[in-house]
Amino acid sequence: xxLEDKVIIVSGVGxxxxxxxxxxxxxxxxxxxxxxxxxxxxxxxxxxxxxxxKTVAWKVTDICDEAQCEALVEAALQRYGxxxxxxxxxxxxxxxxxxxxxxxGAWRQTLDTNVIGTLQMVRAxxxxxxxxxxxxxxxxxxxxxxxxxxxxxxLIYGASKGALASAVxxxxxxxxxxxxxxxxxxxxxxxxxxVEGYVEYxxxxxxxxxxxxxxxxxxPMPLGEIPSDGDVADAVTFFLSDRARxxxxxxxxxxxxxxxx
Length: 261
Description:
Layout: E1 7-11, H1 17-27, E2 31-36, H2 39-49, E3 56-60, H3 66-80, E4 85-88, H4 104-131, E5 135-140, H5 155-175, E6 180-187, H6 193-206, H7 210-218, H8 229-240, E7 251-254
Parallel strand pairs: 1-2, 1-4, 2-3, 4-5, 5-6, 6-7
Helix pairs in contact: 1-8, 3-4, 4-5, 6-7
């Protein structure tokens, strides 16, 4: 198995991508410490992925609080004895719009969560990765950083993920000598609860069929299908695995060919 005997921390576990990443890691042999701000989401994910509670543990964590990030890593060490990887899924992506009429307070909250919060989570995890002899950190990027989507303008979200794309280059230089790899997986639309909800919104608000709504999304995708949360999770587990041992500071798009980069 790709991740046999590895211990992975996953931030931002809810009903979407975070849960799928945790499930894929367990499927591939890892033990996982999952985190999010909502206890109910964590309890539900843990029960679904690992009913016996042998390979999944959880801790409520707000990545904007540095002490909580450190406590999460300590909980993983106490439960499993080591940490081999970190997947940064936690993010604020709900601020829609461009420059005109933008809520500056919401912009600051997005940047504080997506940039500062993520880097705090990384900094808290690095000592444990060094103790393990190295490891893998995976960021979840956004295609809006490279190609703003016309259907959902997300100026500040794309900018925040762009900041993390830049941070990867610095982290590569700083952490590489400790055998810590840092890579980014960039999804497009992902077929999971958020996109399913958006499709239903288009159906109800515009009076179109579900097939028509999906067609608007898949139109620019040569493969003609919306990637699933699971497709993105599989790319993440590859970066976490030893099969990617010589891959760092790279960006992998999981987008059905929508935006060749």
